[in-house]
Amino acid sequence: MNIKEAKIALVFDWMTTPGGAEKVNLVLHEMFPKAPIFTSIYNPQTLKGFENAGINTSFIQKMPFAKKKHQLYLGMMPYAYELFDLSEFDIVISSSHSCAKGIITKPNTMHVCYCHSPMRYAWDNWHSYIREYKMNPIIKFFAKRHLHKIRLWDRLSADRVDHYIANSSLTKKRIGKYYGKNSKVIHPMVEMKNFETDKKSKGYFLAVGRLIPYKKFDLIVKAFNELKLPIKIAGTGIMEEDLKAMANDNIDFLGYVSDEKLQELYSECEALIFPQVEDFGIIPLEAMASGKPVIAYKEGGALDTIIENKTGIFFTEQNSNNLKKAVQEYLDNKQKFSKQEIIEHAKEFDTETFQKNLINFLEDKWEKFQKA
Question: Which of 136-150, 234-248, 333-347 is least confident?
């Protein structure tokens, strides 16, 4: 049986808010439009593009506030995914940074996991997650014990996957470290045709993302308070009010912006600021697809996408002073950055490349799986 004849199912983590993983999920849906989707929670009001998909949700879907506060139900999600009956499928593709990979399949079903990261809040980020997130001290105490149980389940469920795909070199290392598994790196994609490249810069810098602790927007605010340069910040999150209280008038908080508005912001900005450690990070690619350089912290997925002094500038210590120096270095040397070279580099991550690499991987593994 070739892969076109195989019965395929897709399994995603909660489908409630747009983000990098959700962009990958949408491409998977477009590649396999007949494949049903299994997920814990789905909110069609906030996540677009899946209107014609056959979506199967878990019992959590009907729980209070589930569509807006999925975090309340993390403890139930391992059980929710184990309840899904996937016995009729030949191939199951899970797209997971949480519990989706924990589904149970039969021996004659091949399970491939596209892993965005092992659970960040359970493994290498768990100490900072407990320390930095605002929560009641009593809840924080019980959260530590609860994460211990989640970690045990996550490690056990990792063995249910037949083949791992990692979204970056960093994720590949994490999969090896925490799951003891090998993986193939297939980078996420950027839809090149969606981004404008012919507009002139309006002189402002740009930062994009959820305003949560690990994204390090506080470093941006501190650095640009001192630089006194204009910067626009697109995104919302639990740190929004605190960041606004810290910021001077040169820092413009835009809140949620549409995809169309974001494309305009990329095309007219001076450069993107990216101070966090991401598993991969599609936002820098979107900026580069618009011909804009990226000023980034030299860790994580940024190392897979940014070419130093050609498509961006790195800073090596994650603090506002080093970010400030990197911005000044960019301003002193910005004439050496070629918009066309940046765009050509971004094309290496186009959607067609992602689809081709994924299909080649699946066909190879499926042929070997059937012979085993």
Answer: 136-150
How many angstroms from the chain centroid is the CA of residue 246?
27
Cα 150 to Cα 253: distance, rounded to the nearest angstrom = 36
Token pair, residue 148, equals 């211990």
Q: What span, in angstroms and rounded, lies between the C-alpha atoms of 250 and 221?
A: 10
Residues paired with 8 in a beta bridge: 91
Alpha helical stretches, state H, the chain: 20-31, 77-83, 126-132, 137-158, 169-174, 217-227, 240-246, 259-268, 282-289, 302-305, 320-333, 339-346, 351-371
Q: What is the pLDDT of residue 69?
A: 86
Domains present along the chain, CATH in parentheses: 8-189+350-371 (3.40.50.2000), 192-349 (3.40.50.2000)
pLDDT attached to residue 133: 56
DSSP label at 201?
A: P
How far does CA 170 lie from the centroid of its chain? 13
- Single out the residue of 216, 208, 221 nearest to residue 247, CA to CA: 221
Q: What is the pLDDT of residues 157-194, one digit of tens each?
A: 999 999 999 999 999 999 999 999 999 999 999 999 99
3-state secondary structure of 177: helix
- Is 344 within 8 Å of 360 (Cβ atoms)? no
How much is the pLDDT for 137? 56
- Which position has the token pair 């993302």? 209
Q: Which pLDDT belongs to residue 134? A: 56
C-alpha triplet 123, 110, 97: angle, nearest 5°? 25
Q: pLDDT tens digit string along 97-131?
A: 999 999 999 999 999 999 999 987 656 655 555 55
Neighbours of 318 (CB within 10 A): 15
Phi, psi of 195, deg, nearest 5? -115, 140
